[in-house]
């Protein structure tokens, strides 16, 4: 079974600075997707960024980028020029790309990292 | 923007009562997922449907939980009888998935969740 680990329960960053959130995962599959979701206090689950495992190029969405290391099974999120609105829980998630193993597209989540942004 | 709609947003009830949570997936989406979020366990999959058919509900306590899709615009999650340990936030998510064994790379869209408190 696949697992996702976020080793940092809490992180803090100064406004306008850069912060990196860590995520590692365990899988025997070669085809899969990885996601970062943001959950602010309003508890919405907001997709931040996604990465297909077959792509070598790291995904980027404005101030958010990932460092995807497939061999190391690592998928970290970098937030540049941090803003107060970035304060939230961040969840790393894994999804199989095929249904051979019984998966039908459900997400497997890490426990989350709570990010605080200091003004 | 199309959204997944969940009702109610909050529910407080006494132990032993029946609880019904509803989800309206995004029009055109054929896959529905129910997740439960607690402090201790994080986000866990309870059940998922494709084309209204239940594909997996192994994450649900079968004796008290039931999930159904009476039609393509409504998914329900029921707890009867409810217990204090069921207190959590319940999320519904929808997505699109074809009949291929390859899982779509399109992200799931989450509703705002139902915060359930069982006294």
Written description of the protein model:
The complex is a heterodimer of chains A (119) and B (119). Helices cover 0% and strands 50% of the residues of chain A. Chain A is mostly beta strands and 119 residues long. In chain A, strands 2, 5, 6, 10, 11 and 12 form a 6-stranded mixed β-sheet that branches. Chain B has 119 residues and is mainly β. Helix content of chain B is 0%, strand content 52%. Chain B has no helices and 11 strands. Chain B has strands at residues 5-7, 10-13, 19-24, 31-38, 42-50, 53-56, 65-71, 74-79, 88-95, 109-110, 114-118. In chain B, the strands form 2 sheets. In chain B, strands 2, 4, 5, 6, 9, 10 and 11 form a 7-stranded mixed β-sheet that branches. A 4-stranded antiparallel β-sheet of chain B has the order 1-3-8-7, with no helix packed on it. Chain B starts with a strand and ends with a strand. At the A-B interface, β5, β6, β10 and β11 of A face β4, β5 and β9 of B.
């Amino acid at each position: 079974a696949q697992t996702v680990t976020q080793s940092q329960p809490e992180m803090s960053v100064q406004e306008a600075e850069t912060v990196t959130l860590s995520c590692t995962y365990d899988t025997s599959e070669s085809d899969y997707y990885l996601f970062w979701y943001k959950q602010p206090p309003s508890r919405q689950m907001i997709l931040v960024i996604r990465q297909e495992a077959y792509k070598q190029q790291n995904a980027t969405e404005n101030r958010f980028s990932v460092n995807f290391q497939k061999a190391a099974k690592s998928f970290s999120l970098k937030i540049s020029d941090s803003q107060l609105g970035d304060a939230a829980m961040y969840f790393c998630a894994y999804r199989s790309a095929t249904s051979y193993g019984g998966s039908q597209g459900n997400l497997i989540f890490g426990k989350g990292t709570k990010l605080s942004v200091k003004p | 923007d199309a959204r997944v709609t969940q009702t109610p947003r909050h529910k407080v009830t006494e132990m032993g009562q029946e609880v019904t949570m509803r989800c309206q997936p995004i029009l055109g989406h054929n896959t529905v997922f129910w997740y439960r979020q607690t402090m201790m366990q994080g986000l866990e999959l309870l059940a998922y449907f494709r084309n209204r058919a239940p594909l997996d509900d192994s994450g649900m306590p079968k004796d008290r939980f039931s999930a159904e899709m009476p039609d393509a615009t409504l998914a329900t999650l029921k707890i009867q009888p409810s217990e204090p340990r069921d207190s959590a936030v319940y999320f519904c998510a929808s997505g699109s998935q074809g009949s291929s064994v390859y899982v779509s790379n399109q992200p799931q869209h989450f509703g705002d969740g139902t915060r359930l408190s069982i006294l």
